[in-house]
Design a protein that fits this description.
Layout (H helix, E strand, L loop, with lengths): L2 H11 L3 E5 L3 E3 L4 E2 L1 E7 L2 E6 L5 E7 L3 E2 L11 E2 L3 E4 L3 E8 H9 L2 H27 L2 H16 E4 L2 E4 L5 H8 L4 H13 L3 E4 L2 E4 L2 H5 L5
Antiparallel strand pairs: 1-10, 2-9, 3-8, 4-7, 4-10, 5-6, 5-9, 11-12, 12-14, 13-14
Helix pairs in contact: 4-5, 5-6
Length: about 220
Amino acid sequence: MDHHILQEYLTAHQFPTIKKNRKKYLTYEGLQDSYVYILKNGVIKTSVISKDGREFNLRYINQLEIVSLLKDEYSQFIDAPFNIRIESSVAELYRIDRVQFWRDVNESRELQQYVKDYYRVRLLHNMKKLQQMLMNGKFGAVCTQLFDLQEKFGVPVKGGILIDFIVTNEEIAHFCGITTASSVSRMLQQLREMEAICMQDRKILIKDLEMIKENIIF
């Protein structure tokens, strides 16, 4: 996706921004909201809650991106499709009146193409996530999540790729549809014994990415 188009739009209009601290929620699933939010900086997480109260994580976002879906352009208010929680120490987001945003989109071919690309990328991501959930077992799901984390937060260091972001076993469990954090702990211990990963200052260092990929059905 060409994020320059979105950045130029934001710069030209000088929209107001809001800041929220770590663990604070931007929106809750099902609550009405009248804004489109675009992440400026920081890290946020999207998730949904099942009927039995369990949380299922969807994805982390750590770059300039629309973070709230844009359905129903004619309504001033829409129900938030998922929870959005701040995961970095602070996150800053643009807040745009959703009716104004859609008006601007309809008047700009470049923005229209960007929004189409946004939906296409989100659809492909959701299809990939569903495929991974169906085709990988629990161990494969954990490996898949580690692979995704290194793509998003990975930093090449001596000895491997450091996931430069603290992710708890509980959060990994919520991404993988695993009931308990202790189950994730056992799988991570297995990966440590295989010398595929190790821990550095509470962060995961992937020592052998190929070994991680061997346990994933892409």
